[in-house]
Amino acid sequence: MAALSILAFDGILVVALPKAIDDRTMDRLAEEVGNRLVELAASAVLIDVSLAQIIDSFLGRVLAGLAATSRLLGAEVVLVGVRPEVAITMVELGLDLGNIATALTIEQGLANIRARLGGSS
């Protein structure tokens, strides 16, 4: 089972998906992010998928569910680091991540979060 990387700073959770991720790890990640959101009263979640080799239909559903849960807990969500080959695969699979905001880099994702929160973070 892959190790989880969830960092918190300035009211934002930064979640980095590992290179190889299995279904159990994704389920554990979704639960842990929810717990940390409540524990820290975080206002946003930035999910970095730059290391992910593939985003399949299960992972896509978990990411969409994680975003929906985060929004219900009052947090903005931004997905960063989607590589071109991963994006192509996601489109070919017809994956719908809902209304998850995206950005190319962590820096752009943080700027997006700050703009969405009115510069308060």
Overview of this structure, please?
By secondary structure, this protein is α/β, with parallel strands linked by helices. It has helices at 23-40, 57-72, 84-93, 106-116, and strands at 5-9, 12-16, 44-48, 76-80, 101-103. The protein is built from four helices and five strands. Strand 4, helix 3 and strand 5 (101-103) form a beta-alpha-beta unit. The protein starts with a strand and ends in a 5-residue tail after the last helix. The mean pLDDT is 88. This is STAS domain-containing protein. Residues 2-113 form the STAS domain.
Number of strands: 5
Helix content: 40-55%
Question: Structural class, from helix and strand content?
Answer: alpha/beta
Q: How confident overall, as mean pLDDT?
A: 88
For the sheet with most strands, the description reads: 5 strands, mixed
Distance N to C terminus: 33 Å
**Beta-strand share of residues:** 15-25%
Structural shape: globular
Write out the strand line-up for the largest beta sheet, numbering strands in chain order.
1-2-3-4-5
Order of helices and strands: EEHEHEHEH
Task: Count the DSSP helices.
Answer: 4
Stretches where pLDDT is under 50 for at least 5 consecutive residues are none
Rg, Å, rounded: 13 Å
Domain STAS: 2-113
Pfam families: STAS
InterPro entries: Bact_StressResp_Reg (IPR051932), STAS_dom (IPR002645), STAS_dom_sf (IPR036513)
Protein name: STAS domain-containing protein
